[in-house]
Each structure stands twice: as C-alpha cells, then as structure tokens.
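Researcher: Quick one. four chains, 1168 residues in total.
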Amino acid sequence: MSVHRDLDWRSVSRARRDEYAGTHRPRVVRVGTVEVGGARPVVIAGPCAVESRAQTLEIARACADAGADLLRGGAWKPRTSPYAFQGLGVEGLEILAEARATTGLPIVTEVLDVRMLAVVEQFADVLQIGSRNMQNYPLLTEAGRTRKPVLLKRGMCATLQEWLCAAEYVVRGGNEDVILCERGIRALGNGEYDRNTLDLNVVPAAIERTWLPVIVDPSHGTGVASMVPRAALAAVAYGAHGLLIEVLAEDGKPEDARCDGDQGVRPSTLRKVVEGIPAVLGAVGAESEVRA
Amino acid sequence: MSVHRDLDWRSVSRARRDEYAGTHRPRVVRVGTVEVGGARPVVIAGPCAVESRAQTLEIARACADAGADLLRGGAWKPRTSPYAFQGLGVEGLEILAEARATTGLPIVTEVLDVRMLAVVEQFADVLQIGSRNMQNYPLLTEAGRTRKPVLLKRGMCATLQEWLCAAEYVVRGGNEDVILCERGIRALGNGEYDRNTLDLNVVPAAIERTWLPVIVDPSHGTGVASMVPRAALAAVAYGAHGLLIEVLAEDGKPEDARCDGDQGVRPSTLRKVVEGIPAVLGAVGAESEVRA
Amino acid sequence: MSVHRDLDWRSVSRARRDEYAGTHRPRVVRVGTVEVGGARPVVIAGPCAVESRAQTLEIARACADAGADLLRGGAWKPRTSPYAFQGLGVEGLEILAEARATTGLPIVTEVLDVRMLAVVEQFADVLQIGSRNMQNYPLLTEAGRTRKPVLLKRGMCATLQEWLCAAEYVVRGGNEDVILCERGIRALGNGEYDRNTLDLNVVPAAIERTWLPVIVDPSHGTGVASMVPRAALAAVAYGAHGLLIEVLAEDGKPEDARCDGDQGVRPSTLRKVVEGIPAVLGAVGAESEVRA
Amino acid sequence: MSVHRDLDWRSVSRARRDEYAGTHRPRVVRVGTVEVGGARPVVIAGPCAVESRAQTLEIARACADAGADLLRGGAWKPRTSPYAFQGLGVEGLEILAEARATTGLPIVTEVLDVRMLAVVEQFADVLQIGSRNMQNYPLLTEAGRTRKPVLLKRGMCATLQEWLCAAEYVVRGGNEDVILCERGIRALGNGEYDRNTLDLNVVPAAIERTWLPVIVDPSHGTGVASMVPRAALAAVAYGAHGLLIEVLAEDGKPEDARCDGDQGVRPSTLRKVVEGIPAVLGAVGAESEVRA
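Model:
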C-alpha cells in the first residue's frame, strides 16, 4: 500500500549514480572548510534556541573550544504550544552571525516558513529543515532552489523511503548538498525513559540506499542529557557522518533554558565526545572490515 | 518530558469554556446551511484529487445525490514522491467552484502552502490542513487569521495534546471554526492489512477535552475501500460529528485514479453509509444513556 | 524479513478451505447452544477476575439478565506486577461453575499455565488464551489437543500473520474451534487517553484471510469504561462476530475491583449495548451491500 | 492507566538496595569464571539454533577462538510458524554439553516450556527466557526457584517497567542472578530496513533503575548481519554489560541456516567486535566523566 521505489527518489539513489554505486562513500558536502561526509565525522553543536546575545556567544565560544566544527542555534523554533518561546527571529540570525564572526564556525539554523527562506538564506551556512517540516513540500522545493546545504531531519514517524523522497524534493531542484539527520522516532519508551527512540539502524540502511551523508542528533534522539554522550559515540560506531548536539552554558541551569533544557549537555561533556570519536572510529575499523 | 497541559490549549479546552464545560456538546461550525457539530453527523465526500472537470463534476453530482452535505477535492496534493501527481492548482479550484455551483454543496479543499492561502480562501468554504501540515505553525497561524472554517487533520503520529495545541494556533488567531479530523495513525498493521490504523478511541477522548467538533476520515483511516463503509458507521457509533469520505466515479477504475484509488468508494456505497447513519445513532442512543 | 505466508497458517486459511473460500462466512463454533459465528454477534460478559463467590454470582446474574450469551471471569490472572492479585485459582473455577449452574451461561476462562490446562478444561466451556500467551507455543499446542473451544486473544503487538500462525498451532492439533479476539494494540495514544488502541481494521482483514470467527474486546481495547459501549457497537459495525465485555456490579466501585476496575461497565450499560446491536447490524446491511 | 511503580519491582530496584543506590554499579552475575556485570562487557556467541553436532561444534570452537566468553544455542526454538524448525530438544542440549566440554565455554540456552525447565536446568549454565515469554509468569516464577542465572529478554513491545516487573517475578523467588537483555522493539522501520528497532536508550535507563546487569542482542536488534558489528559496539558505547551475538559457520550460507540466517555474523567478524570493545570503552571513559 503506497509503496515507493527507488524511482521515487531517483536522484538520491546510490544505485543510480555510477560515482557512488557499489560503495559506501557519501557525497562530501562542503560548508566553508568543513566537509560533511569527509574523512571524519563532523560535530555540529550549539544552543537549542538563540535566547540572547550573551547566551549564544558564550555557548558558541565554548563549543568552538570543545572542538565543534559547526555552530547550531534556532532563531525560529517550531513549538508544540503556541504559548512557548518561539525564537527571536531575525534578531536571532544577527546574533548567530556575530557568533560566527567571533568563533569562525559556520552556522546551521532552521527555516520553518517558506516566506522566511530568503532572509535565513542570507545568514545561514546550512539551512535546517526540522522534523515537523519533513513533508512540507513547498519548503523542500524552495530549499532545492537555493545553493545552501540543507540539513534535513527525519520526521518523527517517517519511513526511510519517505525521508529519501523528501530529500528528492530538494535535490531535483538542483541542490545536491543535502545532509540527512536521524533524530529519533516515536516509539514505545517515549515518555517513560526517553523523549524519542534513537533509531541507529536507519544510519547504515540509509547509507546503503543513498549517497547523501547521514548524521545523528542524539539530543532529540534521547531527550536526556546524561544519555547524549553515549548515544553520540554509538552513532559514530554505527557509521554516522556527523553529530548534532545541543549545548547549555557550562554553569547554566537546564530549567532556565527556554527550550529543551533537559537534553542539553555541557561544553566539557561535548569535549569528551569529540575526544572519544577517534577511538570509536578505530574500533569499528575500515568499512571493509566491519561490514560483515 | 515535554508534557503539555490544558494551559497550552487553553482556548479550545472544554473545561475552560463555561458554555461547554460539563457537557459533551460541540461548537456548531456553520458552512452555508450545513452545521458541523449540529443535530446529525455531516458527510463530506468527493474525489481524492480534482483530476479533471468531467471527473469532478460527475463525482460531485453523484455525491450530492447520495446525500453528502459538503464536497471535498484536492487542488494541491501533498505527495510523498515528487514525481506523483501534484494536483491541478488554481484550475482545480475553479473546477471545484463550478461543482459547487452545479450541486449547491459547499467546498472543502486543502491548502498546503502558506503563500497560496489567499487564493484558496477565495474559492473554498472550508480550508483543509492535512496531516503532514498539522505542525506547520506558520500555516496554522495564517489560517487563524482567515474567517473560513478550518478542517484540521491529525498528524500521523500526533498525540491528542499535540493536535489540540495545533488547533490552538488557529483559534487564538480569532478563528474558532475549527473541525478536528481523525484520519488514522501509524501503527503495526500498516502495510500488512491497512494503510493507517483508524484510532476511534481518540474521538470520545477529544470530545471530552475540547468543544471543537470531531470528524473521522475512514478513507485514509483504512486505505482499503471495502473497509470504508464499516469504518464510517463505526465512527458514528463512537460519536463522530461527521465523516470525510473519498469517492470514485461509479464506473471508474481504482487504478485510473491519479491519487489513492484503492481507498475510494462508489457513490452507491456512499449512499448506503448515509442511509445507515440514523440506525447507528439510534443504537448508541442519547449521550446520557451510552456514556457509562 | 521473516515474512510469513498462507502456507504457515494453512489450516486456518480461508482460501485453502473450499467450504469458506470466496465467502465471508465464518465457522460456527458451538458452545452449548450458543453459536459463535452464527446468525448474530454473541456477547461474552462478566467480571475481569473472580474475586469472590458473592461478587461473581451477582455479576453473572446481572449479565444473564442483560442478555449475555456467555459468562467470562478469570480464576488465574496474568499480572504485570507479581504483587497484584493473581486470582483465586481452582476456587475461582468452582465459583464459575456455580455461576454457570445458576445462570445457565457457559463459562469462558483463561488458562495461563500449561500444567493447569487439565483442571481448567474440566470446568471451562471455552479456554481463553490471553495476549501475553499468544506466542506461548507449548500452551497453544496443548490447547490444540483438547476438544474445548479456544478463545485466542491477539498479542499486544502481534501482526495479523503472527496471530493466524498462533491459531494454526491450535488447529493443526485437531481443534478447529478457535475464536480470534482483537483486544487493542500498543500504539501512540496509550497512557494519554486510552490503555490500548482498538484496532478494528483487523476485523475485516482477518475475516478475509481466515474462516475462524473474530470477536472484539472493547474493555481492554479502550481501558476506559465510558468508551466501551461505543467501541462495542463500532466493533459490530466492523463485522465482529461477538464481543467480550468486562462488567462491574451495578453499584460496585471501580476502585474496589481487584483488577482493571477502570474499564468495567455496569450491567445496565451492557443491556443497552445488547439492545443496540440489531440496529447496527441493520445499518451495515448484508455483506453484499456494505462491502464496496 | 495501569501505572507501575518501584514498589512493583521492589527487589530489583536500585534505589531500594543500599549496596547499589546512588551508583551505576551492577550486580556481578557469575557463570563459572565469567562475570556478567564485571570489569568488562562479556560476549555471548553461538548459533541461533543447534542444528547438528557438527554445525554446533564448529561454531562453538570458532566463537571460543574469536574471544567469546559464553556459548549460546537454542535446543527449543519458539517459532512463529508451527511448520518452521522447532529445535532438536534434548538432543540439542546434549550437543551443547559436548560443545561446552570441548571449548570450556559455559552454555546459555532457552527454556520455553515450564515442563522442560528441570531438564534444561541440568544442562544449561544460564537459562534464557525469550521475548515471547517475558510475561509467561509461571515460567518466570519457576525460574526464580532454580539457582541458575536467568537471561531475561525484553518483550517485543514491553515497557521498561513491565520488563523490571518480569525480572521481579524471578528475583522474589530467591534467584537474584538475572541478566536483562535488550533485543529490539517493534517500531516503524521493521520490515523496511530492519527486523526490530534496537532501543539502546533503554540500556542507561535500565541501569539507572535496577542493579541487574543489562546486555544487548544486536542480532535480533537489527536482523541484518551487516549491521551487527556496528550495533554491538554501539551497545558497548551505551554502557551495556555484554553482548549476545548469533554466529554462522565461517563458510556457511545464510540461506542454509534453519533459523534466522540473515542475522548471523561470521566468526571473523565476531573477533573484530571483541577486539573493538576496549577502544570503545576507552572512548566512553569512566562513568563519572561520560555521564553528564
């Protein structure tokens, strides 16, 4: 029923692109000097939301110090409740630009309104499309017309095929710089011991089917700060090409964060994750060895 | 973890509105002379997509004859695959307007791009917001600024609270004419014997929590035409204030439909559903009797 | 991955049994003078657990008066917590036998330990195998050696194929009197507004694939007493061959029940369900009409 | 609805046992000289099913060579289809005993019928209780009366609380040597790209709530051999106290295996997993560092 095939995501299909067919190699998406899908997993880190200039600059600097490659932060936040903090908007973008100037880290930020795409595009180095918008086809189509890399989060209950079809909406517009991001699916533990179920099996499955790089968001994928470093390194073991991690200020209180405070880790924890990556890569070895 | 309360959907909360608190009465949403939430369940019927003038007019007339109250049809279709039929766009709206003129039935049609809202609003009597857009907050917010009734489908894996929060985005904009529509959730039978799992338990649960009327879409809620009439009458047994049913031409072939042919019923079947409603209403009896 | 076919449930396959192929007719399972799969849906009602002689006899009489066809009650209860009430055991069976003698209603009761099968078989008219034991293959196999009808509940996350395979374990032992019972699956609303998600789509899907009769348990399928009557009549609309309903004493307090008090309905409510069935059957009409 | 608390799994609750409260330390379950919950994660490996003496001895020796600590193999297999290979029974146990004598590895084998417990107990070093029997309370209760360690797999859709309650059934019988084993849950990717969704978030969540050691089965948790080594090392990153891995003969064909051939890895792959564990442990560091 409603089965989709390779033909529905023809542009992003590994099997249909000679350059990638028969390998596990991803496209390298370049963001400034950072290579997503390159020699080592990239680390994207930063606050959930841009809440203020001071908070953002402090966290940005700490993330850079801890070894992050890219800075994330939301200027517009898609919130379940209309009464929750919705983000600072354009002011948030300006703060992110300042953080970039200060740290040298390129910016990943979410666009959730097709009418805001032009302004976000001016500021962002990578356009994030969130889970709730994975099937917002006008937004995907417009993102395909830009020439900015697009970080496409998996929908909360999206199949792999639906996710690849969403990427296809972007790529067939001429923008091949799409980064897939697993961020947890809705399943039975949610609410009991996690916020989402991190579905790491999808990482090698996606890599098998598409040449797009695949990263993992352990912050949403657990919803619990104490699980994040383990989940992050597990994602690396699974072959993820990068991590997206939410960070609090070193001495900030989770309950003071205006968005998702429970899942933010400290910069000192981020640093340990960054430092742990090479050993995990060593353990899983070269593709040829670990793939059975 | 991310628990939402009544306060997050304060405007649509039954308990917070004196007029409805302590009852099971819904708001009556008026569409022309049709009352959604009124004395009897309404029937919204029509093709999945407007495919042509001839197809739409034929089905529209057949739906009117069969006893439908409102006509549905998609001019823009949110399709998983970018290569699937995407709808006729404005031409589709014009065809729907002609079908309305011919049959006298008000039109329900989907808006999926915030930039198209103004034009859809000109033609439609009810604005449908689909499952994939249930958390498209800019679209919800703009729909709240119109004065057209909004039919808000439940997201594929949305909790009741997320659904009520989505309605809140519309209502707090000043538009209280929101109709909730259950259309099946993603669960374990999908792909084996149905397309979605029709979650009828949510109907009385929603009615208990909100004064918005709640209707059911048995077409998407099963994905199987032969199940639709039973599912439709079951929804009435559960207390639904209306039905949204996809209809094929009496002698059309499911495989010829450009969208969701497997779930469309014939006008003759639609008529039997319409005729069966009063008996089911009689069986469930007055609220005071059936509610334990 | 682990796909099962018709061949795996060959004995219960409708297509493979000439007598039933091409029809929607179920086997008629006879329990005394009651016919499950016969001219009209049967109603199985009674307390969740046999808690005492007085409680059981009172409820049994009230169920008989309300129009139930069979009496249910648990002498052994499979409880998530080892510290919850586990049932009265053999004493419970004796009480059920007395209730049968008093009311004339045959008894449906659960067997959950293969070592207890012989004793349960002596007392019971129908052996119930619960959800947690749907894949307890030794128990299924032994039940296939008895000549008592078996009521086989669907597992909490069992696919239709797994359920049919479970029935096959019984039937290939020579016992063709198996009654399938849908009782709700684990899905997203659970804990928010229901206990299980009643999956009515599985009813026509099962009827299409097997000649075994299919009944529905709206008590577990909702977990909420106020939803039970609506769910029960909806199940009839969907074509169920019977209902399994938990009943409290007319003036009993839900919180006094030692098991699942929240989902028990009153005998007066049961009566309204029984009275509502014919009208719903009338509404859905003959098979030939309602099946699209 | 049906909420369980600490009191329902009081014996296995970390908070209620002074010895473990406030730490992340597990009980050390001793199997011969092997310590589950000890200084390093244990590796349990072997064939899905004991199919023949030759197959079992070959794989057992290869697992021992590859560095496994314990040998697994099923003498009775709970199979969805009654027509699938059900295991060699007592003959299988005798073959396992020979494999133990040959390799020195203690044996883990499943018991699925309470009537077979005594005989399995004679042969096995660890009694495995499978997912389908996680709520087979008579079996759990009897396992609590033995003095053999029990490996308790999580049910396919069991909550953490239900799993802990199942362990409680064993422990309150006086047998504290219970090992919890996550083996994947039913969720949305199943059938599309995996067999089960490996839920690694449950590992740290379980460790937080109970003092029982927690291991992971990446074979069932993926159902895809090529994912197993990555999943295994990811489980170590998440803090698992051991791994349960299904192994094929080095030159065996997956399609020749009588059970679950698609998920078995080669001994050479197993060796790489064993060799990769220390580096992953190094990367996640001491508890105090990685826990945020």
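The two ends of chain C are 32 Å apart (CA to CA).
Researcher: Thanks, that's what I needed.
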